[in-house]
Known about the structure:
The chain starts with 10 loop residues before the first helix and ends with a strand. The radius of gyration is 16 Å and the shape is flat. The chain has 108 residues and is mainly alpha-helical. A 3-stranded antiparallel sheet has the order 1-3-2. It is built from 5 helices and 3 strands, in the order ααβαααββ. The longest helix is centred in the middle third of the chain and has 20 residues, at 29-48.
Amino acid sequence: MSGHGAPFGNVASAVAGVRARLDSFAADPARNARHVAKVMFVFALLDRQAMPVAEVPAYVGRVPCYRQLSDRFLGLDDAALADWLLADLARAGAITIRDGIARPTMAA
């Protein structure tokens, strides 16, 4: 089983749901950029297992795709982007932050 939920039976309904989500991303490119940045960061954490919170601004600053997403759609500097990523992902339950260390809530 994949990590994306149980198999679905109603293909037409599933495709309609995916198309609606794609349409909403197309209508709001900043929303799409926020989603992409969060997914990329969680995968980076899954790969690393953990990252000190203090290192996140430098990390997003040296990975070009974060800078490109922010420059084009979000308008956040490295520190603000890092703060937003950590807060939003923690609020969503995708990461935990304890003792200054960010960790993914799922295993790789």
